[in-house]
Amino acid sequence: MKNEHTNQRVEQAIANDARTNELGVRIDCIDRRVLVRGEVASEERRAAVLEVVREQLPEAEIVDHLRLSDAAQPPRRAEVVQPD
Predict the structure, then answer these.
(1) Which of 28, 50, 64, 80 has the highest CB neighbour count under 10 A?
(2) Crossing angle of the two packed helices 43-56 and 4-16, in degrees rounded to 10
(3) What is the C-alpha to C-alpha distance for residues 48 and 10, in angstroms, rounded to an integer?
(4) What values do phi and psi take at 52, rounded to 5?
(5) What's the pLDDT band for 4 if we cut at 50, 70, 90?
(6) Closest Cα to residue 41, out of 12, 70, 13, 16?
(7) Tens digits of per-residue pLDDT, 21-71?
(8) What is the pLDDT of residue 62?
(9) Rounded Cα–Cα distance for residues 36 and 30 (Å)
(10) Which domains does the chain carry?
């Protein structure tokens, strides 16, 4: 599914959707995996962006690399998985 047209279509949907209106979110589709990256204002906006991506690419595995820009929100904790 690596396709610049698909990337642009989903980015445009995120920018134009009333739930998100985000211009700084970038999409990179590789096979069935979709990397979503950029900066959003809140956890609610993050959820809305991911929902729009799921609507546009329902069969894709979504990888969330969004960062929060709102300093009032606590940062998300990264989870490190130790090998067995």
Answers:
(1) 50
(2) 130
(3) 13
(4) -65, -40
(5) confident
(6) 70
(7) 999 999 999 888 999 999 999 999 999 999 999 999 999 999 999 999 865
(8) 95
(9) 11
(10) 4-68 (3.30.70.1350)
